[in-house]
Specification:
With 340 residues, this protein is mainly α. It has 2 domains: 219 residues, no CATH class; 69 residues, no CATH class. Helices cover 45% and strands 5% of the residues. The strands form 2 sheets. A two-stranded parallel ribbon has the order 1-4. A two-stranded antiparallel sheet has the order 2-3. Helix 2 packs antiparallel against helix 4 and helix 7 runs antiparallel to helix 8. The chain is globular, with a radius of gyration of 23 Å.
Length: 340
C-alpha cells in the first residue's frame, strides 16, 4: 500500500450494553440535531434586533418556533419519496426489472439530491398549509440545510461509506479491519468523495452565514429602518444561493464517484444537479431582473404576497402570529387582539 495513503482502522460499531449502534448513525443524528438547533437559532434571531439574521425589516411578523417542528416533520416524507425516485432514475435498468424493489426500504438507499428536492417541496406545501411565508422560511433554513448535508457527508466517513474511485494520491483514504464498511471496496485506496462534498458544503454554510450577517440591516431608532438587502428581503435568494453552491460542488465532486457515466462522462446525479442548478439560476436572474421588487408587496386585503397576514397596504404594523398561541395546520390564524 502506498505510503501516502491515509488508512483508517477502527470498529465502526459502538456498543451500549446489549445494543450496537454504528458510528455513522450517531454522526447523522448529530448532524440533524445540529441543523435543527441552528434553524431554531435563526428563528429566534428573527425576533431580535440589530444585526441579527433578518432583523431590521419593518412590517413583518416574526417566525414561530412551533412552525419549525411542523416543517421538520413535513420534510421527511418528501425526502424519502424524492430520494427513491431519483435513485430509480440513476439505476433505471435495475428498477425496471425489479419494480417492487423501489418500495422496499431494505433495498438500495436514497438519492441525496432527490431527498433535498423532495423535502423542499413538502416543506413548501406545509408552509402553504400553515399560511406562513414560504420564501422567508426557505431563507431561514438555508444555512441549517447546508450544515446538515455537510456534517452528514462527513459522518459517512465513520462507516467507511461514500468512497470514490480508486486512487493512490497523497490524501487517498482506505479502511482497514473487518468492518463491516459501507463501501464495497473500502480497503482499496480511493478518493474521499464524502469529505470533498462535506467540506465544500460546510464552506458554503460559512459563506452564506457570513454574507447574511454582513448584509443585515442595522436598525436604529433615530435613523429609521435601513435599506433591506436581497439576502434579507425574504424572497428566497438566500436559499437559492445555498442550493446553487451545493449543487455546483456536487456536480464537480461527482467526477470522483464510482457511478457509471450516462451522458458525456456525467452520471445521472451529476446531470440532475446541473439541470436543477440551471433552473435555480434562471429563478435568481428573474428575481434580480431590473425593476423587480426586492420585498414582497402587501396586498390590499392585508396579506403579503407569500401569504403572511397583515393589516393591508394602508400602513401600520403587521400582526405578530407568535402572540396568537398554538396553531393547527389548515386552520386560519386568529384575529389580532386589540388592546383593552
Amino acid at each position: 500500500m502506498p505510503f501516502a495513503v491515509i488508512t483508517l482502522g477502527f470498529d465502526p460499531t459502538v456498543y451500549f450494553g446489549p445494543f450496537a449502534v454504528r458510528w455513522e448513525t450517531l454522526g447523522l443524528a448529530a448532524a440533524i440535531l445540529t441543523a435543527l438547533l441552528l434553524a431554531a437559532a435563526y428563528v429566534r434571531a428573527d425576533h431580535g434586533s440589530g444585526r441579527s439574521a433578518i432583523a431590521g425589516v419593518p412590517g413583518r411578523p416574526a417566525l414561530r418556533l412551533d412552525d419549525l417542528l411542523y416543517l421538520a416533520v413535513a420534510a421527511v416524507p418528501g425526502a424519502v419519496v424524492g430520494g427513491r425516485l431519483v435513485l430509480a432514475l440513476d439505476f433505471l435498468d435495475y428498477y425496471q426489472a425489479h419494480t417492487g424493489a423501489l418500495l422496499d426500504p431494505g433495498q438500495g438507499s436514497l438519492s441525496l439530491l432527490g431527498a433535498v428536492l423532495g423535502g423542499t417541496l413538502t416543506v413548501v406545501l406545509m408552509c402553504r398549509l400553515l399560511q406562513v411565508p414560504v420564501r422567508r422560511w426557505l431563507d431561514t433554513l438555508a444555512v441549517p440545510l447546508l450544515v446538515a448535508i455537510g456534517l452528514g457527508k462527513l459522518a459517512y466517513l465513520l462507516g467507511g461509506g461514500g468512497q470514490g474511485v480508486p486512487w493512490n494520491g497523497p490524501w487517498a483514504v482506505a479502511f482497514t479491519g473487518p468492518g463491516p464498511w459501507l463501501s464495497a471496496l473500502a480497503s482499496v485506496p480511493a478518493h474521499p468523495s464524502q469529505v470533498y462534498e462535506g467540506a465544500w458544503t460546510l464552506v458554503g454554510a460559512l459563506v452564506v452565514g457570513l454574507a447574511t450577517f454582513a448584509s443585515a440591516p442595522a436598525r436604529s431608532a433615530s435613523a429609521g429602518p435601513a435599506r433591506v438587502s436581497a439576502f434579507h428581503a425574504g424572497v428566497g435568494l438566500r436559499y437559492a444561493f445555498a442550493l446553487a453552491w451545493w449543487l455546483l460542488g456536487r456536480a464537480i465532486v461527482g467526477f470522483t464517484w464510482t457511478n457509471p457515466p450516462a451522458v458525456a462522462g456525467l452520471d445521472v446525479e451529476q446531470i440532475a444537479a446541473l439541470v436543477v442548478l440551471c433552473l435555480v439560476g434562471v429563478m435568481v436572474a428573474w428575481q434580480l431582473r431590473p425593476g423587480a421588487p426586492i420585498e414582497p408587496e402587501i396586498a390590499g386585503d392585508g396579506t403579503f404576497g407569500d401569504g403572511v397576514s397583515g393589516v393591508g397596504a394602508s400602513g401600520g404594523e403587521l400582526t405578530d402570529p407568535s402572540r396568537d398561541g398554538p396553531r393547527t395546520p389548515g386552520k386560519p390564524r386568529s384575529a389580532p387582539r386589540r388592546p383593552a
